[in-house]
Design goal:
With about 300 residues, this protein is an alpha+beta fold. The chain contains nine helices and 14 strands. Strands 7, 8, 9, 10, 11, 12, 13 and 14 form an eight-stranded mixed beta sheet that branches. β10, α7 and β11 form a beta-alpha-beta unit. The longest helix is centred in the N-terminal third of the chain and has 14 residues. Bound molecules: pyridoxal-5'-phosphate. Pyridoxal-5'-phosphate binds next to α7 and β12. The site of pyridoxal-5'-phosphate (PLP) has 14 residues, from α7 and β12.
Length: about 300
Amino acid sequence: MALLFALVIDPATSDDPRSDFADTFRVIDPSAPALSVGELSTQRGDGIFESIGVVDGHAQETQAHLERLAHSARICDLAAPHLEQWRQAVDAAAQHAPRHGEGVIKLILSRGVEHGPAPTAWVTVAAAADNTAVREHGIRVVTLDRGYGIDTPAKAPWLLLGAKTLSYAVNMAAIREAKRRGADDAVFVTSDGFVLEAPTASLILRIDGRFVTPAPNGGILHGTTQLSLFAHLEEEGHDTGYATLPTSALTDADAAWLVSSVRLAAPITAIDGSVMPVDAELTASFNRYLLSPRD
Ligand code: PLP
């Protein structure tokens, strides 16, 4: 999607006492070159990002995204982002999102230019793709080996597994492999047989009437959509929880979804070729909730 708006942020240190950060933002032409060729984000994927869904001009779950940006920065040894500065950048960007319909605001924080003075940070706005059909008709998934064990994230923190880094080439390759296998998307599993997440979404299973998702114990991202949906389900009187789920949980489930900030809730119609029933009414209610203004 063509970008509608972009601004570069001069990152403040986390103890900056200012309350107005407008003069740290520089609006740029989103179609013109803007980054230095020395950028470590482009050379090494060395940086982090967030994708925030926007509905009718309202940025969804901004705080949860900012907290995850800070979490990713900690894992990657990047300077802590000034969350109020980023919140104001999101507000400025949201002014340029479509007034009606869906958009996406991306926040990017890079380690910056090699030997340069500071990290580089920018925000973009685009219209979102139309995900109506996938929310209604669902997606077929295949399980793919993520190539590490359930205890790897704790043993090897330098793999940055719980951070939303800019290095998404592996995630994109997994989606291409899923398509080669006749599916629409993938669900990563550990090499010792536990369920993780999709390349760009969290997995939710319904097992015996309870909604469960793999515990974000370092190996996966903690999805803001899953968090928000679980809070909503709890409010509606449902039971939810985190668990270390063996791959057998995929066959124990009587309904399953991939959830993420822009596509929202996509019901899974098949896992590795086995049909998964779709609870169409519940899925529609999930997406109604996810499309309502959420802070
Ligand atoms: N897991 C991965 C690897 C992702 O890339 C994403 C979103 O892009 C998610 C989970 C879902 O996160 P969220 O609901 O915050 O979009």
